[in-house]
Amino acid sequence: MARYHLNLETGSPGLCRAKEGNCPYESISEHYATREEAARSYEDYRQAILLENIEKITDYDVANQLMSRLYTQGLMVMAHIVDLEAEVKRDQPEEDRQQLEIILGERREEWTHLQKSTIYLRARLSRLGWEKSDNSVQH
Hints:
This protein is mainly alpha-helical. The protein contains three helices and two strands.
């Protein structure tokens, strides 16, 4: 079975050719079943780094792109929450229901985090927008 890992500097997924347990990158990058899964993981990693450093973002376009990604991700999370809520209400074994409720709780936490990040990023975009318009007036 093919395994992929990430070059965290470039974001490029690479096919792991090492035998199980002998990968030199295993300590810095987990393995993924597909190239797409590895690439998606890198985008999530980049987003997490950006969110941790929102105040350091000085480029309006970068902040705007991140806002767009957060909005899209928020829509996907909310759609998943709605689906999970419907699934929890269906007749099913208690063990399955409990597992769904755990996942639902995690998704709600993710939704809350996305909302907080979006609010903070909007404030940053607003400041950058003013700075951008101030700079364009001065030149």
